[in-house]
């Protein structure tokens, strides 16, 4: 069995959930380091095993074989470039930021690194990537979110859209995942992941609805291809961060398990 030293960049709700699973024990995986703002004053955490090393973003790759990126999109490149230049693996949750730094894909190729995009808070990426081996005619994603999960998005601020007091569902965006990744950087990584799996961030259609009746994020994906037509829907239970589904951290843990497990299920 291969073994990997894992690093975590970003120690919010997702980072801590992934750390908790690694601390509890995952075969072949060791939590080696966590990148935090001030390594000399790390956040409190109830470790059951030996605490990992605390380090800075730019030094994280020195401690690890694979890095889990779950930090703000603004520091995405600072995390990714050293990891990929060192020829290591990086699990990316800020897939929207990857669009703005797509030269990192070539960097990974040159240095034999690898960028892994887990399913996160969406479903069906394996079916979409399989369909993309043929011809996909269309991919449409419809996202509905509780109002609190969308407040403060740059797109709303820039376009003077006030949703704080709406009483019925409101369509606030229709366009491409590339546009959404800029306007909703903390919300729509799922749409970018769907687009990367299928026909790309410019050809995929995305609708975003603010719905005051919802308590959970809801995503629906509809695909028409030459091999299959299918639709999928998921309702996510929010994590401690209302902008993120609880299943996101679990998808990272599942992706890490596949690195070492004797059985791998799914494309």
UniProtKB/TrEMBL annotation:
Keywords: NAD, NADP, Oxidoreductase, Pyridine nucleotide biosynthesis. It comes from the Bacteria. Its EC number is 1.4.1.21. The active site is at residue 219. Residues 166-253 form the Aspartate dehydrogenase domain. Signal peptide: none annotated. It catalyses: L-aspartate + NADP(+) + H2O = oxaloacetate + NH4(+) + NADPH + H(+); L-aspartate + NAD(+) + H2O = oxaloacetate + NH4(+) + NADH + H(+). GO terms for molecular function: aspartate dehydrogenase [NAD(P)+] activity; NAD binding; NADP binding; oxidoreductase activity, acting on the CH-NH2 group of donors, NAD or NADP as acceptor. Gene3D superfamilies: Dihydrodipicolinate Reductase, domain 2 (3.30.360.10), NAD(P)-binding Rossmann-like Domain (3.40.50.720). Pathway: Cofactor biosynthesis; NAD(+) biosynthesis; iminoaspartate from L-aspartate (dehydrogenase route): step 1/1. GO terms for biological process: NAD+ biosynthetic process. InterPro entries: Asp/hSer_DH_NAD-bd, Asp_DH, Asp_DH_prok, L-Asp_DH, NAD(P)-bd_dom_sf. Residues 10-118 form the Aspartate/homoserine dehydrogenase NAD-binding domain. NAD(+) binds at residues 121, 189. Pfam families: Asp_DH_C (PF01958), NAD_binding_3 (PF03447). Belongs to the L-aspartate dehydrogenase family. PANTHER family: ASPARTATE DEHYDROGENASE DOMAIN-CONTAINING PROTEIN (PTHR31873:SF6), L-ASPARTATE DEHYDROGENASE-RELATED (PTHR31873). The iminoaspartate product is unstable in aqueous solution and can decompose to oxaloacetate and ammonia. Specifically catalyzes the NAD or NADP-dependent dehydrogenation of L-aspartate to iminoaspartate. NCBIfam families: PRK13302.1. This is L-aspartate dehydrogenase. It comes from Achromobacter pestifer. The gene is nadX.
């Amino acid at each position: 069995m291969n073994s990997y030293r894992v690093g975590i960049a970003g120690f919010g709700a997702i980072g801590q959930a992934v750390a908790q699973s690694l601390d509890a024990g995952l075969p072949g995986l060791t939590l080696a380091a966590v990148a935090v703002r001030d390594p000399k004053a790390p956040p409190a955490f109830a470790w059951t095993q030996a605490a990992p090393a605390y380090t800075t973003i730019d030094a994280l790759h020195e401690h690890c074989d694979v890095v889990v990126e779950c930090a703000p999109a603004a520091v995405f490149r600072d995390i990714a470039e050293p990891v990929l230049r060192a020829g290591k693996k990086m699990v990316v949750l800020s897939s929207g930021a990857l669009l703005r730094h797509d030269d990192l894909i070539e960097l990974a190729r040159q240095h034999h690194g690898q960028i892994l995009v887990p399913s996160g808070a969406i479903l069906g990426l394996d079916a979409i990537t399989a369909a993309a081996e043929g011809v996909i005619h269309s991919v449409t994603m419809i996202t509905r979110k509780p109002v609190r999960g969308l407040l403060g998005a740059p797109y709303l601020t820039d376009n003077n859209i006030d949703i704080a007091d709406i009483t019925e569902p409101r369509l606030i965006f229709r366009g491409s995942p590339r546009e959404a990744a800029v306007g909703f950087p903390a919300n729509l990584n799922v749409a970018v992941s769907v687009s990367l799996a299928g026909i790309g961030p410019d050809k995929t259609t995305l609708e975003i609805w603010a719905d005051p009746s919802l308590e959970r994020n809801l995503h629906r994906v509809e695909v028409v291809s030459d091999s299959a037509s299918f639709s999928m829907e998921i309702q996510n239970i929010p994590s401690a961060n209302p902008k993120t589904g609880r299943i996101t951290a679990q998808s990272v843990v599942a992706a890490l398990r596949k690195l070492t497990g004797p059985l791998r299920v799914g494309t």
